[in-house]
Design brief:
By secondary structure, this protein is of the alpha/beta class. It is built from 5 helices and 5 strands. The chain has one domain: 2-enoyl-CoA Hydratase, Chain A, domain 1 (Alpha-Beta Complex). Keywords: Metal-binding, Transferase.
C-alpha cells in the first residue's frame, strides 16, 4: 500500500460479502476509495461478539454496506456486475485519464 501511495496511485478497496476480522481492521479501511457490494456485511467482529463486549443491543443493519454508506464509512455501493466499469471510471478520474 505504501508503494502505491509513494507512486501517487489510488488504492481502491472493493468490499464483498462478508468482510470481517483483521482484514477490516487493517487493509480494507486504508483505501482512498471504498466500494461495497449491496447488503455486504462489513465489520471487525460479528454482532453477537460486539453486543457481549459493549453489553448493549445493537441495531440490526449497523454492519451492512448501506448503513456504512449512510454514516460515511464507505464511498459507494455497486453491484458486482458493474464493478469493472465503476472501478475503471474511478481510476481514470483519479489519474486524470481521458
Amino acid at each position: 500500500i505504501q508503494k502505491m501511495k509513494d507512486a501517487h496511485l489510488p488504492y481502491i478497496v472493493v468490499l464483498t460479502h462478508p468482510v470481517y476480522g483483521g482484514v477490516t481492521a487493517s487493509l480494507a479501511m486504508l483505501g482512498d476509495v471504498h466500494i461495497a457490494e449491496p447488503k455486504a456485511m462489513i465489520g471487525f467482529a460479528g454482532k453477537r461478539v460486539i453486543e457481549q463486549t459493549v453489553r448493549e443491543k445493537l441495531d440490526e443493519p449497523f454492519q451492512r454496506a448501506e448503513y456504512l454508506l449512510d454514516h460515511g464509512v464507505i464511498d459507494q455501493i455497486v453491484h458486482r456486475h458493474a464493478l469493472r466499469d465503476t472501478v475503471s471510471r474511478i481510476v481514470a478520474k483519479l489519474m486524470n485519464l481521458p
